[in-house]
Specification:
Elements lengths: L2 H12 L6 H10 L8 H12 L4 H7 L4 H8 L7 H12 L1 H8 L1
Helix pairs in contact: 1-2, 3-6, 4-5, 6-7
C-alpha cells in the first residue's frame, strides 16, 4: 500500500493538508485498533456535560447505577432507546428535565 499516494489523494479531496493522515494510514496498515464512538455514546456524554452534571449526579437523576452510565458512555454497552429519548429531551429542553426530575 502506498501511504503517501493515498494521503495525497485524501488531502486533494479534502482541499487541505491533513497533518496526521499519514500516521493514521500507517496505523491502519499495522492493524492498530482505533476508538469508535457511537452517536448515542457521544450524545449521552455531551448532554450530561451540557447539564453540568458529574456522572454520579446524572446517574442519580436518571435513576440508574453510575457504573451502568459509565458503561454506556465508554461504549461497552448501548443505552436503551427509552434513555436516549430522555437524553434528547434533556439536550433540547434541559429546563423540562430539571422541572420534572430535579
Amino acid at each position: 500500500m502506498d501511504i503517501e499516494k493515498i494521503a495525497k489523494a485524501i488531502e486533494m479531496d479534502a482541499g487541505e493538508r491533513l497533518p496526521d493522515i499519514r500516521e493514521s494510514l500507517q496505523e491502519m496498515v499495522d492493524g492498530k485498533a482505533a476508538s469508535v464512538h457511537t452517536p448515542e455514546q457521544l450524545m449521552l456524554r455531551t448532554t450530561r456535560q451540557k447539564l453540568g452534571l458529574s456522572q454520579s449526579d446524572f446517574a442519580r437523576l436518571i435513576r440508574t447505577p453510575v457504573t451502568t452510565l459509565c458503561d454506556w458512555e465508554q461504549g461497552r454497552f448501548n443505552p436503551p432507546g427509552s434513555l436516549m429519548c430522555l437524553v434528547e429531551i434533556a439536550d433540547k429542553r434541559p429546563d423540562v428535565l430539571r422541572d420534572v426530575l430535579m
